[in-house]
Amino acid sequence: MGILSQLILNSLIAGAVYTLMALGFNLIYSVTRFFNLAHGVAAAAGGYAVFYLTHVIGLNVYAGAVLGMVSAGILGYGFDTLVFLRLRRKKTSGMVLLVASLGILTSVQAAIAILFTNEFQTFSADQTIHTVLGGSITSIQAVTVAFSVIITLILAVILRKTMFGKAVNAISDDVEVARIVGINSDRITGQVFFIGSAIAGLAGILTGFDTGLEPSMGMGLLLKGVIACIIGGMGNVYGGAAGSMVLGFAENFGIWKIPGQWKDAISFVILVAFLLLRPQGILKK
Amino acid sequence: MKKILGFAAVILAAALTVSGCTRKGGGETIKIGFIGPLTGDLAYAGANMKEAVEIARDEINGKGGINGKKLEVIFEDGKCDPKEAANAGNKLINIDGVTAIIGGVCSSETLAVAPLAEKSKVILFSAASTNPAITQAGDDYVFRDVPSDTFQAIYAARYIKINLNKQRVALLKCLSDWCMGVSDAFKSEFQKAGGVVTAEESFPQDSRDLRSQLVKIKASDPQLIYFVSYTEASIVGIKQMKELGIKSAVFGADAWSDPKIWESVKSNGEGSMWVEPANKNYPPEFIEAMRKKAGDKVINVYAPRAYDAMKMLAMVMNRAGTDTGLIKKGLRNIKNYQGIADNYTFDAHGDITGASYVVRTYRGGKMIDVR
Question: Which residues contact B203 (CB under 8 A, 6 or more apart)?
Fold first, then answer.
């Protein structure tokens, strides 16, 4: 049954990209308790960094991808130290942080457009296509799905087993108490921004290889990541991944029977349904 | 929950924009506006047309301008988006006090600005917007020197049915005024000719994932896919067709004359066909002037029409001055004006009366005419 397996693959591919966005967004939310909209532009920046490194400087793809993730991470770390940290020290509300992050999203997006133009950029046209149960998937899409699983697991292990993970959990439970027991919450938050933004960068890089890059791509990726987090459960690593997959499957199977133009509407209807009926998400923190 | 409400409020606030105010007129120059996508979707075409308008402006000013007054062209970015175009139109009409606007490029832009132009009695002259609805959008002050989509869709439908002998066609279109206009006109002509539409799928203009739409189209087993979309989604769609193993022929609309599509999809686009306006024998002086401005970029099919629009406007204004009532009459009376892109005769709706097309294809890394 070709159409069924193809729809399953399409759902997995979409869900994998949403997962990568949701993981970082959720991680940052769990320590800072605000909606970091600048997360979207970290994804775009990652993609463009790779574009620059491989097309302009001529670096090989793998080295470019690693450096692209690092650049996105550094950018996120920069957002935190230059803007959010200062605002947090002034005890500003989550609302102000949210507006500041929207400002960052818009201005960095504009900077990318100035540097690389607004034109749609593509990496490579030729892809190896694999057939799985009658459906097709390209190498880069398979890699995206694999990465979404691997990074979810790595992140879960880090949060559970390492000192860093324990510190993150402590801050996420109560910042004040965490500080009292000697956790440097500002440093940990900076590191969380680095890791979260690097993962977003990976999402941007993989999207770039799969479809292409444009400066405004961050907002679309971000919205789906945020919805996935709310559906899955804010502040829960597995929740972000579960929400992403629910979203990917709902969108792609939803338009099997209704016209494709309603794809985005489906995700927002699900969002509203969850907010009304199960606001804590699929998995509670 | 509070945060989500806040999020919604921020988005709303960002979506609202302020526009205004007083009209200034007269002065030493005659002001003409330009609206087109200088960034975002179709920026390639917008920039190309801007350069063509600049060439026309410099030629007119070089010959002493209009009745001794120099032409000043103010370029605004419509971003191929109705909201942005309406803001740009408001600014040009109310703040700059322009006599005429060349634009928009995307049909959504022109349809958004048309009521403003009509109300303020400012000439709106598009060189690229082809949606059939523009014929009725502003009967007095809205003109275009590019044929309505009805012409190209009918041409494509007959070509596919008769010359290519394809009976089963699937439609894939973006949700913009232009895409839907072409696709709807195609559908009615193709069905009238006895063809079968196996599936009809659409996607938001900025969507970059058409896989599920394509899966449904593939399942309907068409002989050919008529794919109406701008550059960006076309690149993605053509690639994803290949990824999903779709073997049907692919046929596009005139937006596919953008070489960026074929540079991006490379061999994935092998054999794709599309229609575009026939004449491309532009005068060498124009080609040279464009080369100086734009380098070796291929001249977009609409750029020479933008040049012609500026020239026709100047010709009429030489007699009518800045009285838009007289300019309107002058434009409507143009018969057999030989421009660089076409021979123009206007009808009472501000449309041109004829159109000729050619089918093009991408083969072996080149964009070539079919036969």
Answer: A260, A261, A263, B172, B173, B174, B175, B210, B213, B233
Query: Does any CB of chain B come closer than 8 Å to the CB of residue A260?
Result: yes
For residue B49, CA distances in Å to A283, B112, B252, B306, B308 come to 54, 19, 22, 6, 11
A211 in Cβ contact with A256 (< 8 Å): no
What's residue A45's pLDDT? 97
Encoding tokens for residue B166? 């394809």
Instruction: Using 50 as the pLDDT threshold, list the residues of chain B that sit under it.
Output: 1, 5, 12-26
CATH number at B166 reads: 3.40.50.2300
Strands B343-344 and B337-338, how do they pair? antiparallel
> Is B369 contained in some domain?
no
Q: Are residues B96 and B179 in the same domain?
A: no
The number of distinct structural domains making up chain A is 1
- Tens digits of residue pLDDT in B191-236: 999 999 999 999 988 888 899 899 999 999 999 999 999 988 999 9
Q: pLDDT tens digits for B334-368?
A: 999 999 988 899 988 889 987 888 999 999 989 99
Task: Report the pLDDT value the prediction gives residue A125, as an integer from 0 to 100.
Answer: 54
Contact A126 B267 (CB under 8 A): yes
Answer whether A255 sits within 8 Å of B216, measured CB to CB: yes
Q: Indicate the residue of B206, B210, B219 with minimum beta-carbon distance to A3.
A: B219
Q: What is the CA radius of gyration of chain A?
A: 19
Report percent pLDDT > 90 for chain B.
61
Range of the domain at B178: 150-270
A215 lies in which domain range?
2-117+133-277
* ipTM of the shown complex: 0.85
- Phi and psi for B359 in degrees, rounded to 5? -90, 130
